[in-house]
Amino acid sequence: MKFVYTVLHALRASLALLLLATVPMGLAQGDEHPPIKVGVTASLSGNYQAQGQGLLEGLKMWVRDINARGSLLGRRVVLVGYDDESSPQKSAQLYERLIREDKVDLLVGPYASDLTLAASAVAEKFNIPMVSGTAASEEIWNQGFANIFQVDLPAHKYMVGGLEIARAAGIERVGILYQDSQFTRDVASGARAEAQQLGMEVVEFSSYSPNTRDFSDLVKGLRQQQAELVLGASYLDDSVAIVQELKRQNFSPRAVGFTSGPSLVEFGERLGADAEGVLGFTPWLRAAREPMAYDFDFRYRQLYGRSADSNSAGGYAAGEVLEAAVRLAGSLEQERVREQLRNMSFLSIVGRYQVDEKGMQVGKSMYILQWQNGHRALVLPARYAEVKSQPFQPWDRR
């Protein structure tokens, strides 16, 4: 069963099949030009639900904005989407359905690298360009495909800046935990290589399954190895659980940082004061002063009742990049759109879009935030910093 939405409708995460349509004021339903259909799957259930919903809300906001401005190639834009249930296999099946049955014109990739790895094979099969707003695993772009284009930063670069700062501060012993998924494996491998290149000792390098709930043994290993810097290539639930276990074992390294989790408001809501001092590696934060970042966050809060995060910004940016490519191509012809995506340089809401011959991002920077006084604050790079980074305070001094 299909459902038609306007921008005034709230997204119902329980729906298995969604047709998300944004109709601009003043545009008749019987407009003589058929709409441009943008297809996507989003994780509205399963392990990636929070991140998938953020991506989809950002993408919906872009559709709302583009139609409010008038049109794209003289046509309104609609978003056709399905809940992929955080499953790579489901996502791939649904992208094939979007292409075969829904006849979409353009594709935006799903949240998460493992889903995008599967979905990109479908885009390649049908030779339709796909823009990924949030996937970062290099394996996606090492397949030799011509139709997958990256907005986010490659995963192996996520923690490079943080490690450089840590080494300059005299930290020598690094412990790395990572969820066994596509993106987080790449982040962890890149962090280990960078730490070793900097002359740091990686004293712990351990993986855990996505279903892990008990982190006691992993944190015990970090404590026994006397890790000064603890890094987690993780998502929301596991990053929260690792911090809780650090506190339970009264283990206080000099610094603690994660991917994904700390950039979300829910991280602070769930940990409360225990989030204080935790670092987050994020491809976007409102304070990064990227184009229209504060305006985007303000309008996002008006629509959805909470602040934007890197996933919602990534969804919006994927739409921006697609729009720019179509406008420059002056056509929906796939080869012309693909050529623009491969060659153009564009400043999106999350920063510079510029890719190499594989479609992998080469123009974007990474940001580091820290939870201070109950809020996320940008601490690096220094030229954008809202506050100075603070040491991770021992649990028994809080």
Account of the 3D structure:
The strands form 3 sheets. Strands 1-2-4-3-5-6-7 form a 7-stranded mixed beta sheet, sandwiched between helices. It has a 7-stranded mixed beta sheet with strand order 9-8-10-11-12-15-16, with helices on both faces. A two-stranded antiparallel ribbon has the order 13-14. It is of the alpha/beta class and 398 residues long. α1 packs parallel to α11 (310-329) and α11 crosses α12. The model is unreliable at 1-30 (pLDDT under 50). Helices cover 37% and strands 19% of the residues. 52% of the residues are buried. The chain is built from 12 helices and 16 strands. It is globular, with a radius of gyration of 21 Å. It has 2 domains: 4-153 and 289-353, Response regulator (Rossmann fold); 156-282 and 367-397, Rossmann fold.
For this entry, give a set of tags.
2 domains, disordered N terminus, 19% strand, seven-stranded mixed beta sheet, 12 helices, 398 residues, alpha/beta, Rossmann fold
Layout of helices and strands:
Blueprint: E1 4-5, E2 17-21, E3 36-42, H1 49-69, E4 77-83, H2 88-100, E5 106-108, H3 113-126, E6 130-132, H4 138-141, E7 148-150, H5 160-168, E8 173-179, H6 182-197, E9 201-208, H7 216-224, E10 229-233, H8 236-248, E11 255-259, H9 265-271, E12 279-282, H10 293-304, H11 310-329, H12 334-343, E13 346-348, E14 351-353, E15 367-372, E16 375-380
Signal peptide: 1-28
GO biological process, one term: amino acid transport
Pfam families: Peripla_BP_6 (PF13458)
